[in-house]
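Following the same procedure, backbone shapes were mapped to integers, as reproduced here:
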Amino acid sequence: MFCRTPTALLAILLVAPTVAALDVNETRHLLDRAGFGADPDRLEALNTLDRAAAIDALLRPTQDSIELPDWSGDRPFMDQSAFEGLDEAERQTLRQARNREIQARRRDLKAWWYRQMLTSEAPLLERMTLFWHDHFSTELRQVGSPQLMLQQHLTLRQHALGNYAELLRAMATDPAMLIYLDGRRNHRAKPNENFARELLELFTLGEGQYEEADIQAAARALSGWTLDPVSGAARFRPARHDDGRKTFLDRTGHFGLDAVLAILLEQPRTAEFIVEKLWRELISPEPDPNEVVRLAAGFREGGYAIRPLLREMLLSEAFWDDANRGSLVKSPVELIVGTIRRFDLPTPHDRELLALGQRMGQNLFDPPDVAGWPGHTAWIDANRLLMREQFLRRATRDLADESALAGQPWAGLDEEVVRQWLWPVQGVPVLAAPLPDDDGELGVREALIEAILDPRYQLK
């Protein structure tokens, strides 16, 4: 992964940048927020660029290759014809075998995404796919089908940097979502309000921006969608749809799904709600109300294009403000993927990799509920902090090997540069206990280990 000499990288880090070029701290900050951390490859690629050019490089569409699991093309539901002609004991044996297969595929799906994040050349795409996975929270354990969850993931990935209006439309008829929030059970004779409620509360307007009557009207408008029992594809059944007049957000008509989504996207609050979530993801825990209104207006007027919004947010004064650096806590996935990528560490086996994230509180494809992961300081309760420390201590054991840094750019850095590279907050006392050194001075390995074990390493 690392092919440059330590001397060359040290020169890159220590040479004074031009007036417009990013310095080390700025590059690290950008890559902490818009990727998985400042690895040497990315630092060299961005260090000579100014802010706008660096952000454009991260936002540029890529052709990152994805090798799908070998079971991805299988039918999503069990073929019931396989049970024909079997006695009860044989049926039980077949069911148990199918359940074991599904469990193995669930693990494989989660490990597959970890491997994709660990090797991707498009870290911002991975980060945004993870963001939308949390926004449109769906639980694999409830959906049941790894194939449908993979399909949803690929849809999120397709639109992650594209257009929110198109993503919202795709999620409204996504097969996994239709199962998870009971959309497939929404019939004109008995409207199911589960998806309609979350559509308003979690996906567009936010709490307190609608009435119960709006949920009821939306549920009626969204009725009629089911799943094909063989392919799992979404199908609209007109006979199941309520085509009567409805009043939704003070508008009246014979609304269906597309009309409801169009009305929601017309609301200034929808754009503001998305901008607030992205602000908490990229800038700080407390969004600036004035900036939110400004950014949201451009987002809505621009047809909900995601890339231009991200560009403006990453270029904003608030993003680069020193007061906002180190104000966010890395999620477990960011901590795990970022640490392994940054130091070119051996990738744990699949089961171990999944267990790491789960013990820290982030089980990919299985968020805690429809609201997703709370995030930020919720990541660092007493038990989760212990799990994080155990993971980082294991990482430092790998780096403690004399040969671990052989040929890597890290070997040429001094202690101060290491801290600039790894900490978003500078100029405060070291929080981790200093490590003993026979010569009375920290070597580069000891400096790296100390920096990783300092709590500041877990901030971004």
Summary: The radius of gyration is 24 Å. The first helix runs from residue 6 to 14. Confidence is low (pLDDT under 50) at residues 1-19, 429-441.
